[in-house]
């Protein structure tokens, strides 16, 4: 039951917002009593914290699935962006923005977790792109990774509307890719931008 509550809470928090969803809403959605929820979670903050862990695990499981499909480095980044767009299309407000505004302590824990995971994903992507001849060999990989995740996280934690954040994320990806791409990489970027805009 505990896992079902966390799963349903995560779904509702992402769809309707961390602040607006109440324990009553979750109980009503699951056709259980609020008392049942409080049996497993002493307050809403504990439930939010555990729900963000589930969201994190699900996201990175999907990212790992995308990586395993052996796309080239640039196509891989666009597939990951597409996944985020589809996953959060039912929400109006950026989940990171909501967390930062209403639950700053939980937000700090989420960010520490995400930065570690994202550093690994971004590094592998850049190294792969260099091997494929899509990214320039002389780039400073650590700085490149740092610049990109500062851009992406800054967009999500400071942009309230999710659809605006999605557009900015694609522009940030284009900006990032153009900064490190070879001539071959630019051609692949143009191809991916066209595919993305047609979807």
What would your notes on this structure say?
The protein is mostly helical. The protein has a single domain (58-198), classed as Tetracycline Repressor, domain 2 (Orthogonal Bundle). Helices cover 80% and strands 0% of the residues. The protein contains 10 helices and no strands. It has helices spanning 2-16, 23-30, 34-40, 44-68, 73-87, 95-102, 104-132, 141-158, 162-180, 183-198. α5 runs antiparallel to α9. The protein is elongated and about 60 Å long. The termini are far apart. 26% of the residues are buried. The mean pLDDT is 90.
Taking pLDDT < 50 over at least 5 consecutive residues as the criterion, the unreliable ranges are: none
Taking the sheet with the most strands, its summary is: none
End-to-end separation: 38 Å
Helix count from the secondary structure assignment: 10
Using only CA atoms, what is the Rg? 19 Å
What is the CATH-assigned architecture? Answer: Orthogonal Bundle
Q: What's the average pLDDT?
A: 90
Based on Cα principal axes, name the global outline. Answer: elongated
The class by helix and strand makeup works out as mainly alpha
**Estimated helix fraction:** over 70%
Please tell me the total number of domains.
1
Q: How much beta, percentage-wise? A: under 5%
Indicate the CATH topology.
Tetracycline Repressor, domain 2
CATH homology-level superfamily: Tetracycline Repressor, domain 2
CATH level-1 class = Mainly Alpha
Q: Count the strands?
A: 0
